[in-house]
TrEMBL record:
InterPro entries: YciB. This is Inner membrane-spanning protein YciB. It comes from Ideonella livida. The chain crosses the membrane at residues 51-71, 78-97, 109-125, 150-170, 176-198. Pfam families: IspA.
Length: 218
């Protein structure tokens, strides 16, 4: 359930974009009729409609994520709050100004924010946020947690740069495919590599001493 909730905005963004891209005239009419008040000039063109509609959907989906967690009494992670601020701010600019550039910067801004938060927390506040999240499940030495935190900092920074490089090098449809499949694939590869490293440094379990079956003196 949590995994589905985490990926819900991305899935809805991709599905909305692909459908609207295949029905541009319908998407433009639908967006202009129902969401014209949110757009400067009140009219959405066929080439703008797919990204504007998918941006609107991802804003609503991210808001729904936070609302669902709140209603269930669950904690909203800092990263989700950052994601919400980014998607509402940059997504809102994309919709109002008819400019897809802003939503393309959203993953870069988000991953840079993650990278900075992890680095600053470790460097200046002596708080390893990755260890805070997973320390109870993985009894790793402090040096290993520092390396894992540094790996996440570097990975997020690389993805941030890679996203904007792709955004400015290809058309919007190709960027959407990269955002959904490329970044997700790179994340999966990174997680596998991280899992291999954790397996190597994870201390072996200490076997429990066998219980004595002998009875004491009567």
């Amino acid at each position: 359930m949590k995994l589905l909730l985490d990926f819900l905005p991305l899935i809805l963004f991709f599905g909305t974009f692909k459908y609207a891209e295949s029905h541009k005239d319908w998407a433009a009419g639908f967006a202009s009729e129902h969401f014209g008040a949110l757009v400067s000039g009140g009219v959405v063109g066929p080439d703008e409609a797919p990204v504007l509609l998918s941006t609107l959907v991802v804003i609503v989906a991210t808001l729904a994520q936070v609302l669902i967690l709140k209603l269930r009494g669950r904690k909203v992670d800092l990263m989700l709050w950052i994601s919400l601020v980014m998607v509402v701010g940059l997504g809102g600019l994309t919709i109002w100004l008819h400019d897809e550039t802003f939503i393309k910067w959203k993953p870069t801004g988000l991953y840079l924010a993650f990278s900075v938060v992890l680095a600053v927390s470790e460097r200046f506040f002596r708080r390893n946020l990755i260890r805070t999240l997973l320390g109870d499940q993985l009894p790793l030495p402090a040096a290993a947690w520092r390396r894992i935190n540094a790996a996440w900092v570097l990975f997020f920074a690389v993805i941030a740069v890679l996203n904007i490089a792709v955004a400015y090098s290809v058309d919007t449809a190709t960027w959407v495919n990269f955002k959904v499949f490329g970044i997700t694939g790179l994340m999966a590869v990174f997680m596998v590599g991280l899992g291999v490293y954790i397996h190597r440094v994870l201390p072996p379990e200490t076997p429990e001493a066998p219980r004595s079956t002998e009875e004491g003196p009567q």
